[in-house]
Amino acid sequence: MDAEVSLRVDGTDHRVTVDTRTTLLDALRERLGNTSPKKGCDHGQCGACTILLEGRRVNSCLALAVAHDGAEIVTAAGLAPDGELHPMQRCFIQYDAFQCGYCTPGQVVSAVAMLREAEAGWPSAVTLDGVAAGDGSRARLDADEIRERMSGNLCRCAAYANIVPAIEELARR
């Protein structure tokens, strides 16, 4: 069965007809031609397909397009409107935080969202006591905290030695 859905992707409105079993990842890549999110595992385990859905990071391979009719989606490409790189993208370049680059769009989108989550006081498994209490304090984004918060994004090339410092750089600003 097919359904028509409206999606706002990287600032542009789209109306597309999809099979009701179509994931956001497949709708983005196959129906809209947006190849920024990558199809890695297709099971929500690698994070290569990470997008911002209504401002929150989501593995797009696990979300059905019909469940998000009217949604606002931002991909790594949408973080750089008019060719001006997002500060996180610039940090990834500065720190050479990629090798093959396949996971990079998902890593960058996830890192942008992770910084917002930390700023909002969202706890993690290594967050200091008090942050989760909602007292307005922020988690200290050291390497351990960043690794924990980015653990849903895998890099087959093991570029973590550069990914973590790239994120730390922007977190310090």
From TrEMBL:
Q: Keywords for this entry?
A: Iron, Metal-binding, Oxidoreductase
**Domain 2Fe-2S ferredoxin-type, first and last residues per copy:** 3-79
This protein's source sits in the domain of life called: Bacteria
Entry keyword Oxidoreductase: yes
**PROSITE patterns noted in UniProt:** 2FE2S_FER_1, 2FE2S_FER_2
Q: Which PANTHER family match?
A: OXIDOREDUCTASE WITH IRON-SULFUR SUBUNIT, OXIDOREDUCTASE, IRON-SULPHUR BINDING SUBUNIT-RELATED-RELATED
Q: What is this protein called?
A: 2Fe-2S ferredoxin-type domain-containing protein
**Species, as recorded:** Plantactinospora mayteni
